Amino acid sequence: MYSFEDAEIQITEIEILSKITEFQIFKRYVTNFIQIDKDFLSDLYIDKRPSCRIYINSNNRLMYKDFGSGLHCGCFAYIAYKFSCTYFEALNIVASDFKIKNLEIKINPKLLVSNDENILNQEVKLERFKPRIEIISQPWTSTDYNYWNQYKIPLELLNEYNVFSCKYVYLYKKDKVSIFEYSKYNPIYAYRFTNDGEYSYKIYKPLNEDKKYKWLFSGGSKTDIEGYDQLPLFGDTLILAKSLKDCICYHILDLPAISLQGETNKLDNDLVYKLLKRFNRIIINYDLDSEGIKNTERLSREYGFNYFYIDEVKDLSDYIKIKGLESAKQMINIKLNG
Question: Domains in the chain, please, with CATH?
Answer without folding.
Answer: 3-106 (3.90.580.10), 132-218 (no CATH), 228-337 (3.40.1360.10)
